[in-house]
Amino acid sequence: MKKHLYILCLFLLAGFVGLAQGKPDYGKITLVIHGGAGTITKANMTLEKERAYKEKLNEALQTGYAVLAKGGTSLDAVEAAVRVMEDSPLFNAGKGAVFTNEGKNELDAAIMDGKTLKAGAIASVTTIRNPISTARAVMEQSEHVMMIGAGAEKFAKEKGQEIVDPSYFHTETRYQQLQKLKDKEKTELDHGSGSGSAEKIFIEGKKFGTVGAVALDAYGNLAAATSTGGMTNKRYGRVGDAPIIGAGTYADNNTCAVSATGHGEYFIRSVVAHDIAALMEYKGYALQQAADEVVMNKLVKRGGEGGVIAVDSKGNVAMPFNSAGMYRGYIKNGKAEVAIYK
Ligand code: ASP
Fold first, then answer.
1. What distance in Å separates the CA atoms of residue 264 and residue 305, rounded to the nearest whole number?
2. What is the DSSP letter of 143?
3. Closest-CA residue to 307 (of 316, 317, 294)
4. Mean pLDDT for the stretch of residues 68-85
5. How many CA atoms lie within 13 A of 328 on its CB side?
6. Is residue 154 classed as helix, strand or coil in its secondary structure?
7. Which CATH number is 30-340 given?
8. Which pTM was predicted?
9. Of the candidates 300, 197, 294, 149, the residue with the CA atom closest to the CA atom of residue 308
10. What was the pLDDT predicted at 195?
11. Which of 32, 201, 291, 306 is the most exposed, having the fewest neighbouring CB atoms within 10 Å of its CB?
């Protein structure tokens, strides 16, 4: 009898030690992704295009989830999911990046680790195939948070990241989008009403298309990642919200992980991602409530179009957007859901 009691005590002790050490909890693992928000309606979509988007979103979800299911970290999962979308011409990130006013493709990306609150970001790069991986290298292999332009590219090369010729990012669809926007701008200059129209035209191509992922792993750690080509027709050196920690990307194990997509200038001014986390931390809001407050109320009042994806430390998911559509999806308990329209 005494011996049994002794064994029982040992079991209980092992259980407590396991809990204290944060035993992996595979029931909670969650991955959420977006492929951009904007004027995405069924009316301007073909069935074929819709299928292609859904397939790629599913592939990104499955790729990231496989990492989590094998005991990988949320950082590994968000990076893997974003890389799938960066390699696809469908999204405005990596391969499918939009064109600047000067006819170039300039990429921005950021990643954040909710456990350590470490972050890495790069901006205005033109030769890095997978900007999200370089952002991660900045976080893990440098003492900095953000690197830009030529310096970021030099760093990427030194760290063995894949470098491509800028022409790798040239896709005809995106190039035509730029030409259309430029034509409109010229017409507006010749015949337009003036004040405020330049900005209106800038956001005319409102299919933002940035990609992002947020995840909760089996160890209770959150991570967020965002990658983008920015906005069509952006001017020299323009950087959006995606690589700005707290604006387009944020993660903190105490609250949530957020990745945004939309008109970056508004998202920067509203510090969107951190604002959501702050509402949870300081006001005790639930994830959905916090995300809705910022995206559906604050941003709408300020005229900022777009949306976010978010996950909290319990595995709750929120994906609010105030635009017509947002390519999005999440996977939990091995079951994936993807959606495009409202
Ligand atoms: N937020 C991105 C930017 O302003 C654009 C997007 O979401 O597609 O650069």
1. 9
2. S
3. 294
4. 98
5. 26
6. helix
7. 3.60.20.30
8. 0.91
9. 294
10. 45
11. 201
> How far does the centroid of ligand 1 lie from the alpha carbon of residue 126, in Å?
16
Identity of the residue numbered 274: H
Alpha helices in the chain, H assignment, sequence order: 2-20, 47-69, 74-86, 131-141, 149-158, 172-191, 197-202, 264-269, 272-283, 287-292, 299-302
pLDDT tens-digit readout, 5-53: 554 444 444 444 444 446 899 999 999 999 999 888 898 899 999 999 9
Tokens of 59: 């592939």
Centroid of ligand 1 to alpha carbon of 110 (angstroms) = 12
What mean pLDDT is predicted for residues 303-332? 97
Please report the atom of ligand 1 found closest to the CA of residue 208. Answer: 8
Q: Which of 210, 238, 268 to mutate to test the pocket of ligand 1 (most atoms within 8 A of CB)?
A: 210
Residue 75: what residue type? Answer: L
CB 210 within 8 A of CB 261: yes
- Find out whether 300 and 25 touch, Cβ atoms under 8 Å: no
